[in-house]
Amino acid sequence: MTNPSLLELPPGVQLVYLAEGGANVIYRFVSAPVISTPIGRDRDLKSVSPIAVDVPPRFRGKLLRLRKETAADIPYKEINRNFNTIVRPLFKADELVDQTLTSLPNGLLKRCNEQLRAAEISGQRPKKRHGGYLCLHEPYGLLITDMTTFNEPGAILAELKPKWLTQSPSAPTTARRCRTCALREMKNQDLRLLGMKEQRSFCPLDLVSECFDRIFHATSFIKGCNDPARLARILHRNPTLQRLRTQQVSCNQVGLLGPPATSQRTSLDMTLRDCTMFIRIPRDEKSPVEIRLGDLDLKTGAGGKSTYWRKLEVTLIEDGWYNGTNSEGPSDCGLQDATTLDPTFQYII
Ligand SMILES: O=P(O)(O)O[C@@H]1[C@@H](OP(=O)(O)O)[C@H](OP(=O)(O)O)[C@H](O)[C@H](OP(=O)(O)O)[C@H]1OP(=O)(O)O
Ligand SMILES: Nc1ncnc2c1ncn2[C@@H]1O[C@H](COP(=O)(O)OP(=O)(O)OP(=O)(O)O)[C@@H](O)[C@H]1O
């Protein structure tokens, strides 16, 4: 039986590739025929429908998120149910990228996949995403809040993953690196050995620091933002960031405290440590800034993931990544800075 409250995408809907991660591809709706996307980074894939129709009002201000084929293979219906029952209650409505299920017209996913393949050949798809395609047995898409700034001249979208805003509960008390910096340094050693470029990014503890200079230091790493001082003012004591940290403090079954390898328990706690923060900053400093958290799909510890998380924690501890004994050169980690500069400073864990 069809669900009368379920949104349906009109058959001639025209989509333009916006971006993708490991598990989902994001599309914009357009109402006029396009040859290629107007701007930007990994955004040059051609439109996926030959027939243009007007975007119905209920799809305005929304993007379409389509699921890729992955080992986890969790249907959007389940992702959406988990989001509504487990994640949504932890935040205020205006702090979240909203999501609603929508059914998809026949043939849409196939057409999208053809476009993704064509974009690989023409070099328009990010190399690291090649070979990943939409899941053809997924009947739904997710309509999500559009945080892009295409319709707002002069506005910018800053995007960041806040990651672990508190130290891992099983990190050594002698640690000089937070979980995120310890893992990054470990991954960077592998990259160096392969002769590849190291990854540089901010320390999450800096993002939630009381010290403006530390936040400013962090924001200088954030993609898409040409005014790190303004972004630092926006993030200083920001309620959404503070709430995310508070929720991470409560949902602290991570590290060696995480679910055992045999557990099927889904892991909200790790989900809260891997979401994305979107910050839409208007040109005019007096207009309101919109900040929302997205990519809060409930992870699962099944399929070997919880074993991986535990093993990773053991490696970070035993191979000295938390203590920094294995690292090359000085670290920028806020934990080291906070403990060395101010011995009375305590992060809430
Ligand atoms: O291992 P981390 O902390 O680097 O986080 C992974 C992310 O890497 P990033 O921090 O963005 O460089 C990683 O992001 P990318 O795919 O590299 O963009 C995933 O989000 C991964 O989660 P999952 O395996 O897809 O459920 C993330 O893994 P888990 O959070 O599930 O461990
Ligand atoms: N609501 C949004 N507004 C604007 N851009 C978005 C939005 N949601 C996602 N994006 C863009 O699409 C990219 C991929 O989206 P998303 O994070 O949903 O993919 P994913 O596959 O779940 O990512 P991951 O690899 O982290 O699992 C984001 O990094 C972002 O650039």
TrEMBL record:
It catalyses: 1D-myo-inositol 1,3,4,5,6-pentakisphosphate + ATP = 1D-myo-inositol hexakisphosphate + ADP + H(+). GO terms for biological process: inositol phosphate biosynthetic process. One of its GO terms (cellular component) is nucleus. Pfam families: Ins_P5_2-kin. Its EC number is 2.7.1.158. The keyword Electron transport does not apply. One of its GO terms (molecular function) is ATP binding. It comes from the Eukaryota. The keyword ATP-binding applies. The EXKPK motif is conserved in inositol-pentakisphosphate 2-kinases of both family 1 and 2. Has kinase activity and phosphorylates inositol-1,3,4,5,6-pentakisphosphate (Ins(1,3,4,5,6)P5) to produce 1,2,3,4,5,6-hexakisphosphate (InsP6), also known as phytate. Phosphorylates Ins(1,3,4,5,6)P5 at position 2 to form Ins(1,2,3,4,5,6)P6 (InsP6 or phytate). This is Inositol-pentakisphosphate 2-kinase. It comes from Penicillium malachiteum.
